[in-house]
Design a protein that fits this description.
Elements: E1 17-20, E2 23-26, E3 44-47, E4 50-58, H1 68-75, E5 79-86, H2 89-102, E6 109-113, H3 114-123, H4 144-149, E7 160-166, E8 168-172, H5 173-178, H6 185-192, H7 196-208, E9 215-217, H8 220-229, H9 248-262, H10 274-282, E10 285-290, H11 292-302, E11 310-314, E12 320-327, H12 335-345, H13 348-358, E13 361-362, H14 371-374, H15 386-396, H16 406-424, H17 428-443
Parallel strand pairs: 4-5, 4-6, 9-10
Antiparallel strand pairs: 1-2, 3-4, 6-12, 7-12, 7-13, 8-10, 8-11
């Protein structure tokens, strides 16, 4: 899930959020039905002896908006870059699979959302270039868990990470103060450090003196997703076997979320719906799991009246929410030049610029020492040192196996299952059985 914004210093939300299976993606001005070039795919002679490289993306991906294409073109006068964008990943992804299967209609570089990368590494790695062997690419520049996500069992790295979504907890300082809880971000982080049950306990403390009309969390489904993202295994094990029914992490997330719902700590909201946006604006809940891109979303919805009322602290356990990769199809017309471009776009220096301009947190931990990341602060959130907070979270994210159907499982556990517990008072066991039946039908189990 991702929501791309401008820099924290220039923060204006550029696009609306559109629904995606198991997540949400930002919109973009240009919307073609095809993730490849509009004329059927790859690059070619861009005129004047230049080679045109095409980059297929979904949503407001940020590379173009951050000026990285223009910078590369200045460094390589013989290269021209054209971006082909599809607004919604739910349209982009099926078309990309179709083009990979046929070997035609592909851009020279294709972006891939984290929820889809496992399908490529398990089923389509042979159709993509091994970028791990590309000149200038250093595995040690990247977070280990991110590198593994883009690498097949056979050791072929078909995706280079652009951004990630390490999680913290955004909270309303004014509501915490009225409820008798600490407001300093270090002290707030200590309330629940290392244990999701402590987060529940903090919620119960909040509830005793909660300001009228407010809840501790936005909704139980958000709590569940945060817990699921922080475990070592979620829906699949390291061998690629489906384990969600017996996964300790899934059970922990389900049980904890149900406790939030049944204890009255939830505002019973579904994320990225108008009612959720309005609740952010009104200050109707006190905490929210947030990766870096969420800060821009909160600012957009809360507006000037929310400035310096929000802050961000460490999560009980760090997880990851969102992120993407760049891939180079073997069937592309300009594989060599496309590989060079993909390698350059994912170098630490470029990813640091992307964060500075678009709040997309770097996949390369080698970027964390660069000033654009290390010194980054968010004035809207009380000048929170977001570079340091999210760098620490990123380094603590578990190496979690991602399976090809993660998005489907996540969606139905939330929408068919936990949302019923939260909004309708459905018994947790009944909601679980309903979700499992829906998932199994979707997966043909």
């Amino acid at each position: 899930m991702r929501y791309r914004t401008r820099t924290y210093r220039k923060v204006t939300v550029l696009a609306a959020v559109a629904a995606l299976a198991g997540g949400l993606l930002a919109g973009c001005a240009e919307d073609k039905e095809d993730p490849g070039a509009s004329s059927g795919g790859g690059g070619g002679d861009g005129g004047g002896g230049k080679t045109t490289l095409t980059v297929g993306v979904f949503g407001a991906f940020g590379l173009q908006e951050a000026g990285l294409y223009k910078e590369y073109e200045k460094l390589h006068p013989d290269i021209s870059i054209k971006q082909n964008s599809v607004q919604r990943n739910e349209n982009y992804w099926p078309a990309l699979l179709t083009h990979l299967s046929s070997g035609s209609g592909l851009s020279d570089i294709q972006a891939v959302e984290v929820g889809n990368i496992a399908e490529l590494t398990t089923s389509h790695a042979d159709k993509l270039v091994d970028l791990g062997k590309a000149d200038g690419v250093d595995k040690n520049d990247f977070l280990d868990w991110k590198w593994r996500q883009g690498t097949s069992k056979g050791g072929k790295t078909i995706g280079l990470g652009t951004d990630i979504g390490p999680t913290g907890i955004c909270y309303r300082k004014d509501l915490f103060e009225k409820a008798g809880l600490p407001t300093d971000r270090e002290a707030v982080g200590k309330l629940w450090a290392g244990d999701w049950q402590k987060y529940l306990a903090a919620g119960k403390r909040y509830q005793k003196k909660a300001p009228d009309g407010t809840s501790f969390v936005d909704g139980a489904t958000g709590v569940m997703a945060a817990v699921h993202a922080s475990g070592k295994e979620k829906f699949y094990d390291k061998g690629g076997e489906l384990i969600y029914k017996d996964s300790p992490t899934v059970k922990e997330g389900w049980d904890l979320a149900a406790q939030f719902a049944e204890s009255g700590l939830s505002a019973k909201l579904q994320q990225f719906q108008p009612s959720w946006d309005q609740a952010i604006s009104n200050g109707s809940f006190a905490t929210l799991t947030c990766p870096p891109w969420m800060l821009g979303y909160i600012k957009d919805k809360a507006g000037d009246k929310g400035e310096d009322k929000w802050d961000v602290a460490a999560s009980p356990k760090p997880g990851n929410w969102g992120g993407s990769f760049l891939t180079v199809p073997e069937a592309g017309k300009n594989k060599e030049e496309a590989t060079k471009l993909a390698a350059w776009l994912t170098e630490p220096e470029q990813l640091a610029k992307l964060f500075d301009e678009r709040a997309s947190f770097p996949s390369a931990d080698a970027a964390y020492a660069l000033p654009e990341v290390k010194d980054a602060k968010n004035p809207y959130f009380g000048n929170a040192p977001v570079g340091k907070i999210f760098s620490k979270a990123a380094e603590g994210v578990p190496v979690q196996p991602i399976g090809p159907k993660d998005g489907i499982i996540s969606q139905y556990l939330a929408d068919t299952g936990m949302l019923g517990v939260d909004q309708k008072g459905t018994a947790p066991d009944e909601a679980w059985n309903k979700a499992v039946k829906t998932i199994d039908n979707a997966l043909d189990q």
